[in-house]
């Protein structure tokens, strides 16, 4: 294990403190590890008691920071960061160094959400829409399916119960905000009602408009303005006290001129880009009282992600054509039930998804071009439609069945599960017609196990260990890619991983008084990846027409994660630290892994919690990486500088209906650079000081 001196120091200092014992006569006060989650085991547990590396970001956490996107709220989660630039639609989730969209499974109210496009981010929903974001670090394939090598991000939409006061039948809430750095004006309206005891209704609208960001180096980030809006419609109907139907629809849209490359620095040119992402969910829940055999959830979801680009400038004029269109349509069916049989809690189910991918271009073909400058000299007169060889379309169907047994005997809990999953991938008709001699339909299947043991030594102290396998099937574009005249690779196999973890958790109360609590968790993990699907476009090591993608990679990474939370009646302090390191099959470091991160956040409450003031400190260590050196025309080791960011926040409940909030990001206007979204390089400079205000009222 490549533990740093800081990790060893933190562990040696905190673990003895976490080994104290105290009385158990009163309930614990709430800390960030006490949030209820089903992401880890699909049975309700606190994040601490799940014996898994899972964290929950609540709507209060999001509001506290006045976050625009969920990526703004990842500061305190160990080994979870955002990669990519600060432009709208330029960020992706990175979990334990897995930072591609295909390695982190994202869902909204259970509907799978995926978007992959060259030099773009993967998720575009507004933070105001979500009541919680649960993040499971490490594979969770048995319960959630292929594509969760790095982890799972489950987002839950807000509903009327988040706003309605006891005995209230209808109401509304309005938020008006301003961000000083980019002169952003934003507004949110919620309308909610309970017309009958059985029916809850919620409607919401969010609007954001801004100028360009000012970066921490004092420069303006050109083409980074925001012009976005989101809507949320949600209803829940109780057939009986223990039987619930739910229907929700959410849509986010952003339309503006922006850089073609939103994830990394460098001049690529601009396009007019319209991004639209929508999620529709229909759900049914049945949990009859005094029936241990039925705890049923059925979810039917549809996710649509559409990106349209036009009016490309410079070299992008021919690449974009008149209009380029990228689309993902994903249908999801998830049926799950939990049956309690004595000491066993059996969770079993079936999951199905159908993902359709489309990449089309509308253009006037170039009939004559300058071979030196590649500029088109003459265009054809007829407008044509064509599929993109580097963004191939197709369809991928997935069927998975699983069973998990959670066995509890006295202080010991053993959780074991197994999943079988099958994929069938087909290309477009145009691709088929181009390769009539090939069987272009590809099938993959996999069986994966998982096992976790948790032993509660005392009421306060527990040890846990787990082994989980993960995998992902080849993507549509990896199978059918025709980049720069290359052949497809229909022989690609699944990418596989094995993850081992060991950790301990601690929770106690009455640490310094009878109104405080302490919780903590420490985890060590080791993850091996085999048959990694890699891209090689080098004309030297992989000359055309050889396929671009192959199962040539292997890597091994391990890391350390520590969380300590102290809560008192008048406030709290949360501390988290994480690090991860690794190497590939040639013994070379994994340059794309994130830097070590230490996060400290705290809050104090005054006047019966009417006034809250908080601070957050994020210290990101230096990291070594490979960067391209134009002078030598080669990649050289370089170091990305460390940085420390400080933020402040405050909330004042003026009365029962009015609230004022303040948040300051990068208080000292520290100059720093983020992690790029491609290859883990040094990215754009981060955003400079940003003073954010918000006034809300409800009636």
Task: Write a concise synopsis of the structure shown.
This protein has 699 residues and is mainly β. 6% of the residues lie in helices and 56% in strands.
Q: What does it look like?
A:
The chain contains 6 helices and 40 strands. The chain has a 22-stranded antiparallel β-barrel. A 5-stranded mixed β-sheet has the order 3-8-9-6-7. The protein has a two-stranded antiparallel sheet with strand order 1-2. The protein is mainly beta. Helix content is 6%, strand content 56%.
Helix content estimate: under 10%
Cα end-to-end separation: 56 Å
Please count the beta strands (DSSP E, at least 2 residues each).
40
Overall, the morphology is globular
Strand content: over 45%
Radius of gyration: 25 Å
Strand pairing plus helix content: what structural class? Answer: mainly beta
**Number of continuous helical runs:** 6
Descriptors:
single chain; 699 residues; mainly beta; five-stranded mixed β-sheet; 6 helices; 6% helix; 56% strand; globular
Task: Present the secondary structure layout.
Elements: H1 5-17, E1 36-37, E2 45-46, E3 54-58, H2 59-64, E4 80-84, E5 91-95, E6 104-108, E7 111-113, E8 130-137, H3 141-144, E9 151-157, E10 170-179, E11 184-196, E12 199-209, E13 213-214, E14 220-221, E15 227-240, E16 243-259, E17 270-286, E18 296-310, H4 316-320, E19 323-341, E20 344-363, E21 366-369, E22 376-379, E23 384-387, E24 394-409, E25 412-427, H5 429-434, E26 442-456, E27 461-472, H6 476-480, E28 495-509, E29 516-535, E30 549-568, E31 571-584, E32 597-606, E33 611-620, E34 623-629, E35 634-640, E36 643-653, E37 658-665, E38 673-675, E39 682-685, E40 690-698
């Amino acid at each position: 294990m490549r533990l740093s001196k800081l990790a060893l120091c933190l562990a040696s200092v905190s673990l003895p403190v976490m080994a104290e014992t105290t009385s158990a006569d009163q309930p614990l006060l709430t800390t960030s590890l006490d949030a209820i989650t089903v992401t880890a085991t699909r049975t309700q547990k606190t994040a601490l008691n799940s014996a898994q590396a899972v964290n929950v970001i609540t709507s209060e956490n999001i509001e506290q920071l006045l976050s625009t996107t969920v990526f703004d709220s990842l500061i305190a989660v160990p080994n979870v960061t955002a990669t990519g630039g600060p432009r709208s639609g330029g960020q992706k989730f990175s979990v334990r160094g897995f930072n591609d969209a295909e390695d982190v499974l994202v869902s909204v109210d259970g509907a799978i959400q995926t978007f992959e496009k060259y030099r773009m981010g993967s998720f575009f929903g507004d933070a105001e829409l979500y009541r919680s974001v649960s993040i499971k670090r490490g594979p969770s394939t048995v319960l959630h399916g292929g594509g969760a090598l790095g982890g799972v991000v489950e987002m839950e939409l807000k509903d009327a119960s988040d706003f309605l006061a006891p005995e209230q039948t209808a109401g509304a809430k309005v938020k008006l905000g301003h961000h000083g750095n980019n002169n952003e004006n934003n507004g949110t309206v919620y309308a909610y009602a309970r017309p009958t005891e059985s029916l809850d209704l919620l409607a919401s609208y969010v609007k954001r408009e801004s100028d360009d960001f000012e970066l921490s180096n004092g420069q303006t980030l050109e083409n980074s303005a925001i012009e976005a809006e989101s809507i949320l419609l949600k209803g829940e109907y109780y057939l009986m006290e223990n039987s619930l139907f739910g229907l929700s629809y959410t849509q986010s849209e952003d339309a503006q001129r922006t850089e073609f490359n939103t994830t990394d620095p460098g001049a690529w040119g601009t396009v007019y880009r319209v991004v639209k992402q929508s999620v529709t969910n229909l759900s049914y829940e049945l949990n009859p009282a005094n029936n241990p055999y039925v705890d049923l959830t059925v979810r039917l979801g549809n996710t649509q992600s559409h990106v349209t680009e036009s009016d490309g400038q410079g070299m992008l004029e021919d690449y974009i054509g008149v209009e380029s269109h990228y689309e993902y349509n994903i249908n999801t069916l998830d049926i799950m039930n939990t049956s309690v049989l004595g000491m066993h809690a059996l969770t079993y189910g079936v999951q199905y998804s159908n993902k359709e991918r489309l990449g089309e271009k509308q253009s006037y073909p170039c009939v004559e071009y300058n071979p030196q400058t590649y500029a088109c000299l003459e265009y054809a007169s007829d407008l044509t439609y064509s599929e993109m060889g580097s963004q191939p379309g197709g369809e991928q169907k997935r069927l998975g069945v699983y069973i998990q047994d959670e066995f509890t005997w006295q202080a010991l809990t053993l959780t074991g599960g197994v999943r079988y999953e099958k994929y069938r991938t087909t290309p477009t008709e145009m691709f088929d017609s181009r390769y009539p001699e090939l069987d272009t339909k590809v099938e993959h299947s996999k069986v994966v196990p998982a096992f976790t043991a948790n032993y509660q030594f005392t009421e306060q102290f527990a040890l846990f260990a787990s082994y989980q396998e993960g995998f992902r099937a080849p993507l549509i574009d990896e199978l059918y890619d025709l980049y720069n005249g290359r052949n497809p690779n229909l022989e690609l196999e699944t990418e596989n991983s094995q993850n081992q973890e060991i950790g301990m958790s601690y929770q106690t109360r009455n640490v310094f008084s009878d109104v405080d609590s302490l919780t903590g968790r420490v985890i060590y993990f080791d993850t091996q990846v085999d048959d990694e699907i890699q891209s090689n476009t080098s004309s030297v090591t992989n000359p055309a027409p050889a396929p671009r993608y192959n199962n040539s990679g292997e890597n091994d990474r391990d890391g350390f994660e520590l969380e300590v939370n102290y809560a008192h009646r008048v406030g709290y302090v949360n501390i988290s630290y994480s690090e991860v390191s690794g190497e590939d099959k040639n013994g070379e470091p994994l340059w794309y892994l994130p830097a070590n991160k230490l996060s400290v956040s705290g809050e104090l409450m005054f006047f019966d919690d009417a006034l809250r003031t908080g601070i957050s400190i994020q210290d990101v260590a230096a990291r070594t990486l490979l960067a391209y050196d134009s002078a030598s025309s080669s990649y050289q080791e370089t170091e990305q500088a460390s940085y420390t960011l400080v933020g402040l926040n405050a909330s004042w409940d003026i009365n029962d209906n009015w609230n004022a909030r303040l948040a300051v990001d990068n208080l000292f206007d520290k100059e720093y650079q983020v992690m790029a979204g491609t290859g883990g390089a040094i990215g754009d400079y981060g955003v400079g000081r940003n003073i954010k205000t918000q006034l809300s009222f409800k009636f």
